[in-house]
Amino acid sequence: MGSVFLGRRPTGRSGIVPHVPHASVPALAGADEIARIAELAHASGRLGIDTEFMSEGRYRALLCLVQVAVPDAEAPDGIRIALFDPFEQLDFGPLAAALADPAVEVILHAARQDVAILRRAWRTDVSNVFDTQVAAGFAGYGAQTGYGNLLGAALGLRVGKTASYTRWDARPLTEEQLSYAREDVVYLLQLSDRLHEQLRASGRLEWAREECRRMDDATDERDPETAYERLPRSGQLDPRSRAVAREVAAWRERTASAEDKPVGTILPDPALVEIAKRKPSSPRELEQIRGLHGGHLRRRGQAIVDAVARGREAEPIAREARRPGGEAGDAPLIALVEAVIRTRALEAGLAYELVASRAELEQVVIAARRGDPEPDVRALNGWRRELVGEELAELLAGRRAVVIDGGRLAVTPVGG
């Protein structure tokens, strides 16, 4: 049996203590349940979902289990839970259609990787995502709060996390795994309700939804033609070597995809960069490059040399122009801007990490100092501009000043 531990029992929106679903070992659902779950999702406009997957030793993560929760008045606890095995020959079309329906709110926790995997595995869009981890940051729980900790903080519940690192690609799945998988969605709708309630009360619900929309386009697909840009020290390569690196990295990416292996097992990064520098014209010349063992040379030597030849014939790739660099005098301004953002985030009950990164603040400060147009960064767009972005722009333009008022930082109009 799975482990479910209850702390204090929370009250729902009406003040009534909700029923907490009891622990049980669920069976894997079949094709009929897919249609029923999809029907309930469309009818209620809500669907909670989670996945288990395996990434180790593969090019792409392998979808191993899908757990779904939907409201169901006929279910004993008002919530219908279903676990689906993607290894079975089932038609997941109805469930995929529910994920793509903008009228259905798709509730997940730490959604990005789950959304990316589902989009790829089921060839579907995923729209109207409500990520409870993102929402938690707007509700004052912290930007990266884990599911178990958030359940404890928001609902007073604790769940067992005993099977997190088990082999989800092995069959049959154990009772422990099935119970663990059920626990990952059984409280998801209830958690979403609590976060909606808190965010609506604070006026931050639309901000959270705006941020969650960034998840709709999450993908784990990689473009072979741009893979070279992620290589270590690729910026140090000359234009001709960059063209070679692009061809070899694209070959490596396609080979890894076809064989479903990590790219590093096809050709390690340091060896690839060295190949781009040396541009070998025969498999024998590859023997002089560290990191290439006999297996690489026997199986892939000629393919590597062919990719190098394509790179040598391709148009050289010029280095990208560097962004304007910072100056020593920027550091105090960045610290000041960061202090303003922290103040506004604290006042709004938001996690600071949601608002801006230090790299973004550096861009904002450098552009203001140089008189350049505003950079296209998160802190100056959308809900962030409403919260603090406009104020930052005014501050850096000299139209506002930072003062200490009653022991707290405040921003006031100059001369005001």
Q: What does this 3D model show about the protein?
A:
- By secondary structure, the protein is α/β, with parallel strands linked by helices.
- It has three domains: 4-217, Ribonuclease H-like superfamily/Ribonuclease H (Nucleotidyltransferase, domain 5, 2-Layer Sandwich); 224-313, DNA polymerase, domain 1 (Orthogonal Bundle); 330-413, Orthogonal Bundle (DNA polymerase, domain 1).
- It is 46% helix and 12% strand.
- The chain is built from 16 helices and nine strands.
- It has helices spanning 31-44, 93-100, 111-122, 132-138, 147-155, 175-186, 188-202, 205-212, 239-259, 263-266, 269-278, 283-286, 294-313, 330-348, 358-370, 382-396, and strands at 4-6, 46-54, 62-71, 79-84, 105-108, 129-131, 157-159, 400-405, 408-413.
- 37% of the residues are buried.
Key traits:
DNA polymerase, domain 1, 3 domains, 416 residues, Nucleotidyltransferase, domain 5, two-stranded antiparallel sheet, 12% strand, 9 strands, 46% helix, alpha/beta
Mean pLDDT: 90
Unreliably modeled segments: 1-23
The helix/strand series, from N terminus to C terminus, equals: EHEEEHEHEHHEHHHHHHHHHHHEE
Question: Whole-Å distance between the termini?
Answer: 66 Å
Assigned CATH class of the largest domain: Alpha Beta
Shape summary: flat
Task: Give the second-level CATH assignment, the architecture of the largest domain.
Answer: 2-Layer Sandwich
Q: Report the CATH topology name of the largest domain.
A: Nucleotidyltransferase, domain 5
- Rg from C-alpha positions? 26 Å
| Helix-strand makeup class | alpha/beta
Q: How many beta strands in the DSSP annotation?
A: 9
Percent of residues in helices: 40-55%
Instruction: Give the strand content.
Output: 5-15%
Specify the biggest β-sheet.
5 strands, mixed
Q: Please tally the helical runs, counting DSSP H or I stretches of 4 or more residues.
A: 16
Q: CATH homologous superfamily of the largest domain, by name?
A: Ribonuclease H-like superfamily/Ribonuclease H
Tally of distinct domains: 3
